[in-house]
Specification:
This protein is α+β, with helices and mostly antiparallel strands. Helix content is about 20%, strand content about 45%.
């Protein structure tokens, strides 16, 4: 901590004076020094500001309140299409959805109990007040990248639609266009569909059906 020249001078003069005074006068002078030192400390703190009370909790806007209504624990039925036109593989699992970062983002922790290889994924859905757009991010154990998509919400059908792309691992520098559709059926059910386009047109790759547990 740094002291101003005036405070340093006050301290040195007081120490010198104490050596020449009686015990009673020295005690009184020591108390005076303590008081003056406290004032020096306060004066030497740059841009000192008085403490303020914590800000009150803000009410969420309609977009974030809508996302928050999906928080909870869910059972999940997964339909996975390995190739377009084939019958999907059916697996089951669970998901926990929770609002994080002061209610600004909806986080999903997804686990699917596949017999050969359990699946785990982590995703976020949020609403950007600056752009008036929703966004979706996704990561899972099957790839090392990140899926990022933007979109909107249709109040007439209670449907979120996101569009984006991801890196094509089979072609360096290429991107795979994708579309995500999340439809809220009611407070206890919603579905998620994931589409990819590998050059032959868009095809449904994954469908997740959610039923609320709590």
């Amino acid at each position: 901590m740094h002291f101003s020249p005036a405070c340093k001078l006050l301290a040195s003069q007081t120490v010198e004076a104490e050596t020449r005074m009686s015990p009673v006068r020295a005690l009184f002078l020591g108390f005076t020094l303590m008081t003056a030192s406290a004032a020096c400390l306060a004066a030497d703190v740059p841009n000192a500001k008085p403490p303020t009370a914590p800000a009150s909790n803000e009410q969420p806007d309609p977009q974030h309140a809508r996302l928050a209504s999906m928080a909870g624990r869910w059972t999940v039925k997964q339909s996975l299409w390995m190739k377009p036109g084939e019958q999907p593989r059916i697996d089951h699992g669970s998901a926990t959805l929770s609002m994080v970062l002061n209610g600004r983002h909806l986080r999903q922790d997804l686990h699917i109990d596949s017999p050969d290889k359990p699946f785990d994924g982590l995703g976020y859905i949020g609403y950007d007040n600056a752009t008036s757009e929703y966004f979706s991010t996704w990561m899972d154990v099957n790839f090392t990248g990140l899926v990022l998509a933007q979109g909107g919400f249709d109040t007439a059908t209670s449907t979120y639609t996101f569009k984006g792309s991801m890196a094509d691992a089979s072609r360096a520098g290429a991107k795979i266009p994708l579309r995500e559709v999340l439809r809220v059926i009611d407070n206890n059910h919603f579905t998620y569909e994931y589409y990819e386009d590998h050059g032959a047109g868009e095809a449904l790759a994954v469908r997740l059906e959610y039923t609320r547990e709590s």
